[in-house]
């Protein structure tokens, strides 16, 4: 139910609407809940609404922590 | 797919599994509840449990809106849809939930009711605009993730003066349910050691509403993304906290969750909704201040007032263990109906309907492991 998918903003349509791309699938969603949206941003999309913007730096940091933990794990 | 594939890397999963095994202290048991059905589904689908050491156990929680909605409210929706002037718009998850006397929205539709599956509240509003002679009612369910979309639709309907649109509101609150689980830990059931916190609910409410879990119940929470590596990293973080005798609210899903949540979404919820005194949950019973209703300012868009809905309590199938499973007190295979009378094709209880339900997830991905285990032990199933 709370499933949400990361999608890339490809067009800002005005009136709080935007076109997004989910792995080749194009869809128009409501973006009223996310401030200062820019083209190319990734958002978390749930039932036709963007809930939050994905922070690329935080995503990379999470991945680097994951890799580090996995390295430690493999070495143990 | 960006922001998905990199969190499903099998080689990293192996490394994380080894890290968890190394971190988990022998002679100590770790019991974590994944509150949210999205996590339940991911854990079953990707076999995360198989990668955990024997002393790290996951308990499925009640975070599945379809599962916790009581039969009486489905009965209400079916009665509403049976009215000749009503078009009921619903998320697809609800279509097959068993109601009283073997009824369901799917059967009601087959019998002629105008029930339409929608992807979004935007679709329900569109239907209301294009069919002004129909009373279009949106069957709103879900935790805080799904509440802002309902709030925005109600706000939009009011702004447009859309007189034939209303909402049958069943939105419920995560922190209150979490408190109910922790306050109701049962005799004979080992207590939880920590909680894997919801991903998308937290994009809306942030991490602060979980503070009470640490301060009052002295258990750690790690807010986790929904991908398998997210869940495994969160489990590792929980084990790490316990080993260090810490209980804090940590955020593994920092790429989408900030401590204060989404201000715009919270404003929309606060503007349109207020707390109900009490709401009935399957598995938890009546829980005070655990659900939302429309404020008086939006009374015209409240289906409960417009159609004078008075919910009658209705009993679940007495043989169905959904209630205890939702509280984490029992597992799907503890239910007599599981996999025999109750399957995803013929669900007897709600946990077998939604793909996020514990029973549906276990039926799809977990029961083969049970079978292998019991065959090894020489028990026939």
Automatic annotation (TrEMBL), chain A:
GO terms for molecular function: carbon dioxide binding; iron ion binding. It comes from the Bacteria. Pfam families: HupF_HypC. GO terms for biological process: protein maturation. InterPro entries: Hydgase_assmbl_chp_CS, Hydrogenase_HupF/HypC. Belongs to the HupF/HypC family. NCBIfam families: hypC_hupF. Involved in the maturation of [NiFe] hydrogenases. Involved in the biosynthesis of the Fe(CN)(2)CO cofactor. This is Hydrogenase maturation factor HypC. The gene is hypC.
TrEMBL record, chain B:
Pfam families: HypD. It comes from Methylocystis heyeri. Belongs to the HypD family. One of its GO terms (biological process) is protein maturation. This is Hydrogenase maturation factor. It comes from the Bacteria. One of its GO terms (molecular function) is 4 iron, 4 sulfur cluster binding. Keywords: Iron, Metal-binding.
């Amino acid at each position: 139910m709370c499933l949400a998918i990361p999608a890339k903003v490809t067009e800002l349509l005005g009136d709080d609407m935007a076109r997004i791309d989910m792995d080749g699938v194009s869809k128009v969603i409501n973006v009223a809940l996310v401030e200062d949206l820019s083209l190319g941003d990734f958002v978390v999309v749930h039932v036709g609404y963007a809930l939050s913007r994905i922070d690329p730096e935080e995503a990379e940091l999470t991945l680097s922590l994951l890799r580090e933990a996995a390295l430690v794990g493999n070495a143990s | 797919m960006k922001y998905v594939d990199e969190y499903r890397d099998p080689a990293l999963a192996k490394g994380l599994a080894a890290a968890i095994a190394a971190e988990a202290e022998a002679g100590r048991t770790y019991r974590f509840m994944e509150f949210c059905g999205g996590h339940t589904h991911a854990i079953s689908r990707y076999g995360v449990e198989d990668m955990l050491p024997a002393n790290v156990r996951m308990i499925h929680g009640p975070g599945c809106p379809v599962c916790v909605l009581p039969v009486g409210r489905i009965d209400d929706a079916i009665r509403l849809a049976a009215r000749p002037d009503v078009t009921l718009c619903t998320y697809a998850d609800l279509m097959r939930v068993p109601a009283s006397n073997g009824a369901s929205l799917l059967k009601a539709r087959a019998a002629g009711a105008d029930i339409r599956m929608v992807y979004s509240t935007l679709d329900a509003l569109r239907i209301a605009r294009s069919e002004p002679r129909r009373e279009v009612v949106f069957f709103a369910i879900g935790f805080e993730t799904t509440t802002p979309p309902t709030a925005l639709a109600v706000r939009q309907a009011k702004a447009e003066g859309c007189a034939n649109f209303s909402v049958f509101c069943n939105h419920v609150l995560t922190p209150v349910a979490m408190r109910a689980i922790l306050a109701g830990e049962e005799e004979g059931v080992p207590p939880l050691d920590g909680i894997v916190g919801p991903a998308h609910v937290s994009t809306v409410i942030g991490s602060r509403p979980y503070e009470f879990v640490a301060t009052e119940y002295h258990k750690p929470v790690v807010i986790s993304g929904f991908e398998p590596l997210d869940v495994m990293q969160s489990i590792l973080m929980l084990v790490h906290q316990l080993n260090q005798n810490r209980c804090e609210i940590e955020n593994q899903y920092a790429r989408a969750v900030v401590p204060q949540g989404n201000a715009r979404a919270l404003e929309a919820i606060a503007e349109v909704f207020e707390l109900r005194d009490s709401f009935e949950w399957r598995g938890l019973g009546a829980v005070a201040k655990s659900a939302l209703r429309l404020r008086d300012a939006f009374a015209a868009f409240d289906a409960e007032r417009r159609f004078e809905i008075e919910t009658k309590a209705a009993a679940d199938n007495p043989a169905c263990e959904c209630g205890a499973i939702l509280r984490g007190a029992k597992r799907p295979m503890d239910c007599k109906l599981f996999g025999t009378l109750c399957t995803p094709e013929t669900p007897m209880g709600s946990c077998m309907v939604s793909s996020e339900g514990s029973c549906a997830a276990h039926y799809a991905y977990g029961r083969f492991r049970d079978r292998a285990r019991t065959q090894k032990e020489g028990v026939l199933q």
